[in-house]
Write a structure and sequence with these properties.
The complex is a heterotrimer of chains A (336), B (319) and C (519).
Chain A: H1 3-12, H2 16-22, H3 27-44, H4 51-76, H5 84-102, H6 104-128, H7 133-152, E1 157-158, H8 169-172, E2 174-175, E3 178-179, H9 180-198, H10 200-210, H11 212-217, H12 222-248, E4 250-251, H13 259-270, H14 281-300, H15 307-327
Antiparallel strand pairs in A: 1-4, 2-3
Helix pairs in contact in A: 3-14, 4-9, 4-12, 4-13, 4-14, 5-6, 5-7, 5-12, 6-7, 6-12, 9-10, 9-12, 10-12, 13-14, 14-15
Chain B: H1 4-7, H2 16-31, H3 38-63, H4 71-84, H5 90-115, H6 119-138, E1 143-144, H7 148-153, E2 157-158, E3 161-162, H8 163-181, H9 183-193, H10 195-200, H11 205-231, E4 233-234, H12 242-252, H13 264-283, H14 288-309
Antiparallel strand pairs in B: 1-4, 2-3
Helix pairs in contact in B: 2-13, 3-8, 3-9, 3-11, 3-12, 3-13, 4-5, 4-6, 4-11, 5-6, 5-11, 8-9, 9-11, 12-13
Chain C: E1 20-29, E2 32-42, E3 47-51, H1 58-65, E4 73-78, E5 81-83, H2 88-94, E6 96-99, H3 111-115, H4 130-143, H5 159-170, E7 177-181, H6 192-204, E8 208-212, H7 216-222, E9 225-230, E10 233-239, H8 245-253, E11 271-280, E12 284-292, E13 296-300, H9 307-314, E14 322-327, E15 330-332, H10 337-342, E16 345-348, H11 352-356, H12 363-367, E17 376-377, E18 380-381, H13 383-396, H14 413-425, E19 431-435, H15 443-458, E20 462-467, H16 470-476, E21 479-484, E22 487-493, H17 499-506
Parallel strand pairs in C: 3-8, 3-9, 6-7, 7-8, 13-20, 13-21, 16-19, 19-20
Antiparallel strand pairs in C: 1-2, 1-4, 4-5, 9-10, 11-12, 11-14, 14-15, 17-18, 21-22
The chains are: A mainly alpha (336), B mainly alpha (319), C alpha/beta (519).
Chain lengths: 336, 319, 519
Amino acid sequence: MSSAEQTKTRLLAGNVSKAGVMSFLSAQGILIFFLLGMVVFSFFSEQFLSQSNIMTVVRQASIIGIIAVGVTVVIIGGNLDLSVGSMLSFATVLVVDLHDKIGPTNAILMMFALTLMLGAVNGILIGFMRLNSLIVTLAMLSIIQGLVLIYSGGQNVDIANQDGTWFAFFGRGYVLGIAVPVLLFGLLAILMQIVMSRTGYGRRIFAVGGNPMAAVYSGIRKNWCVFSTYLISAFCVACAALVLGSRVMGSQNNVGQGYELLVLAGIILGGTSLLGGAGSIWKTVIGVLILGFIQNGLLLMGYPYYTQWIVTWVIIILAVWLDLANKRKRLLTTHS
Amino acid sequence: MMSIKGFFRGRAAIQPIWIFVIAIFIFFSFMSEYFLSLGNITNILVQTSTIGLIALGMTYVMINGNIDLSVGAILGLAASLAVGLQDYGLTIAIIAALASGMLLGAINGLVVWKTGVNAFIVTLGAMLGIRGLIFLYTGEQSFYSMNFAFSDFGASSIGPFPVLAIIFLLCTLVMHLVLTRTGHGRNTFAVGGNPEASIDAGIRLGRHMMINFIIVGFFAALAGVLLASQMGAATPNLGRDYELWTITAVVLGGTKLTGGYGSIVGTLGGVLAIGILRNGMNLMQVPAFYVLVVLGVILISVLIIDKKLNVPSTKEVRI
Amino acid sequence: MTPVHARTGQRQPIDADPVLKLEGITKRFPGVVALNKVDFDVRPGEVHALLGENGAGKSTLMKVLAGKHQANEGRIILGGEEMAFENPKHAKRAGVVLIHQEQSLVPEMTVAENIFLGSLPKKWGNRVDWRKLREDTNAILETLKCSFQHDDLVGSLSIAKKQMVEIGRALVFTPRVVVFDEPTASLTDHEKPVLYDVIHSLCEQGVGIVYISHRMDEIFHLSHRISVLRDGEYTGTVNTCETHEDEVTRMMIGRSLELDHASKPTDFGENMLELRNLTVKRIFEDVSFNVRKGEIVGMYGLVGAGRSEVAETIFGLRTPVAGEVVLDGEVVNFRSTHDAVAAGIALVPEDRKDQGLILGMNCRDNMTLASLSSVSSGGFMKGSAERSVYDKYHQAMKIKTPSWRQKVGNLSGGNQQKIVIGKWLHTHPKLLILDEPTRGIDVGSKAEIHALVKDLAKSGYAVLVISSEMPEVLGLSNRIIAMYDGRVTAEFDGDSVSEDALVQAITGMGTSAPAAATA
């Protein structure tokens, strides 16, 4: 069977629209990029492959990574979440501001509770009221940013006694020589990877994202499933805020701006389809690390930080095009 | 021959958003004595012209069934080029700025067309990459225009009417006519509404997608040039979040994300709604960040109303 | 075999060289040969009916003809010239037009724009020439005697009027062959004559018509010749005036009509399901019947009679406004499918691809989707348990797939359906509802599924089968519930019912035409 025939197979199998994105970067594709990049960077910079540098990269990528784990679950369930950036601002400002007012423990609890509430609002609107997730989370992005500004009155917040609080542990601490943010990222990723691939819950999320109608016809509570993915996403954002707030000990009220897009870029580089029903946490981890290594490698080679954005763009186009070369068939212009 | 009915072809033209626009217009007229004046109203038009121009192009792309997240970055790049290249002459700078927008739009369109990959992914990448290009070009510096012809243009007016408002309204009229009356406009609807039927009818999907991405690129660049002339400067972060504002305006105007449905008249309503809200709340001395909340709530309300109005057909089951 | 329909047609075959010839057309899809060396021709001015059961390949053949699919082998000869249509527009320009079964209109555009989709008349500068568009459209609408205007939005038209717009499209280029694919499926009785008039006038202009339909009365009324497809094979062509319905039916159905009545279960237990005056607003009214343990009840009716909707209501997908559902002696009121599944109801849905399967998932995962808790402990999936469930049904139902890792999207219809059935059997339901269980699948799998359903009933399952294929309903059911227009019109004993009575019950009595009798 020629590859064109194989494409047709997929087309006829009914996943026409998905075929385009579903596997636009196969697992091998990512690894090749990953290794190739590593070789190039290590060629130009001796430090690049040193253990301390690798740990630095992973540590820097951990905030995006933690959020990306949650958003990946939302995407596998067939929806999008653009509100995570604003939500990160919200949670960070909240936990930093409350730290001096009600103590670290209460501040953390309060921050988690309120962030989960925002996630629940997303979940109710998208899961139970079945509104379009792109627009709802776009609106929530704006609303939450407004709430942060109203709360802070447009002022930046910070923690007065930065050295005397155990709150520093989350952003600056080490356990067994591993930075706490990395540990949190790793634990969350492993946990969610297990949940998604080994539990009935994960299987249901895949089913809902793959074909919501068939999921309902199989007795799956679709609305609850969608709702829960937004709680997971909000929980991950709260964890990221813990790390971010603790690292900087102060926060601008738009600190999370643009994170939603970096997170999505990482997920896309990892090769998870935005159409739902496919993907995995480990792909996202690799995608986020690729982003991190591109940034770090370019910095070590002496290029300014923003060159990584250009490289990311080029990689996304290349990845999309390489996958096309595999199919050798234009999808929209043959059978639809 | 142009009947009234023909002018508002398709009858999708009268959007509920206009009722809202009229309502808040009346509301603010009563709430603030400054609101209802020619000066303030032209001011609203000037303020909204930037997002308004991009929204014109975005309407085309969204009716076509795609989306473009890179407009804010294209705006930023065009603004920087328009100011930064002025040493080579103002005309060249402006042409280069507009051409950059069309070229980047063409790249977006080409990738979406040739790969069939979701436009969301492609333009998200472009959004990051183009912002990187701006920083690379400007070295993270702001540029200031030394050419007063350029910076005066943004503040100039013909009679009582500011030039920017006139440009915006003229573009709106032209884009409305192109969408409703030309082959390209009608095929844009067809492709978004029923791609399969369009292919069967021999409509060249890719060509229309390309053209629409070039259109939105052009308008984003035009908005960038005009914004730079208004400010007499360009900053590397110019245009951040504009994609979100633009999409909000277009969706408020009744254009469907799924494609095949929408109108420039509706988009104009959406743009004005945002402009009047900002302006009116500002006059009432409400802090700017409340506008963010109000807009988000309105956007979600529009979705809910839309859902309730479209009573599900009897065929639909509860899922 | 009960009564004999000895209806024959009036129209003499037209003696002329064919305007269109298909020779040895073969079309393969992965896993299926959809068409195997099919011959077909149309003469100018004739109506050539194409018959076959669901899945026999009629639609595929017509898509090949109209350029939507490309044949793997065979030739298309139009007016003496061999053609290779690359796309539908190409075919349309050459004069071959397909009037779609599923409508391919853009709802937000006007009638005129839809008729001239892709070929809008232009003035300078790519501007649409609205005057010419209006005049051309009005001319076409006049030919079709349409009551709507050129600037009506297509989305606001009734289905019958949309159909007319589709037909209007065929007239834009001078057509030589027009293919009607089940054109009356969604038309009411008083709308049909308009369509017949259009077909007659096309014939008079020397256009060749291919007419695909399930309805014998229409076919014998309209056609000059009849060709039959069965399982992708060409079984022959007859002149309408020299044949009768029985012969055509035999050509269509072949051996599968000889269903084994004797092996039906006969031993019934207590009531498993009872519907009491169940009503869903605007869809069906006052539906009452029961299904006993070990019994197969057939629900027979035309598409749109409300059969699937009754099943969906039992399954918790619709909310009744009146009446009650009694399951195993208890009145139930499901708020979701989850509750229905938990209570022991299984529904094999009508639309396999949209409702039955997650096409991107593998066979095993689809199989266990409705019973995840039985193959997991503490929320974690047990791989071995999943495999053994899969292996059990894989063997029991003779599912042909290379491996459990195969994506179900790549399987043939029959194997896909077996996976859906397997999925539900593993929930060990009290009541099994099968909605069109054999639509679009090959004869072999069909027979296997029929045998399986009977075995299930024998082992005590209560089974409700919804079908629009009379042989299936007659062959399987102990009792038959006939529905027409949202109401139960009759209940028959499965062994002694006459086909005539059944047909009358599902067509709302009074109509003499045995419409869809063998569809």
